[in-house]
């Protein structure tokens, strides 16, 4: 997805929004997904998110880190 396009998803949980956005961003064509978990996002939720991504995109390498950003529960990118 180029910078000229914007993907938007509205879900009740961050996990659902991330999975929806990954589909819109054509993650099946990407090599790596980098995830930064915010300060209010638990390690358990992060592990569950990574498991769901790996289940949906078995060829995608997922690099999950604690970013501890205060505002957003999840910040992620794909390359």
Question: What structural keywords apply?
Answer:
single chain, 79 residues, alpha+beta, 3-stranded mixed beta sheet, 3 strands, globular
Q: Determine the number of helices (DSSP H or I, runs of at least 4 residues).
A: 2
Strand content: 15-25%
The biggest beta sheet reads:
3 strands, mixed
Report strand order across the widest sheet. Answer: 2-1-3
Terminus-to-terminus distance: 9 Å
Low-confidence stretches: none
User: In which range does the helix fraction lie?
Assistant: 25-40%
The residue-averaged pLDDT reads 90
Q: How is this fold's topology laid out?
A:
Elements: H1 14-24, E1 32-37, H2 43-56, E2 61-66, E3 74-78
Parallel strand pairs: 1-2
Antiparallel strand pairs: 1-3
């Amino acid at each position: 997805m180029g910078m000229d396009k914007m993907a938007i998803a509205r879900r009740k949980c961050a996990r659902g929004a991330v999975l929806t956005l990954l589909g819109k961003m054509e993650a099946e064509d990407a090599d790596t997904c980098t995830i930064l978990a915010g300060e209010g996002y638990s390690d358990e939720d992060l592990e569950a998110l990574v498991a769901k991504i790996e289940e949906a995109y078995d060829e995608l390498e997922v690099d999950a880190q604690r970013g501890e950003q205060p505002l957003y529960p999840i910040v992620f990118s794909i390359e």
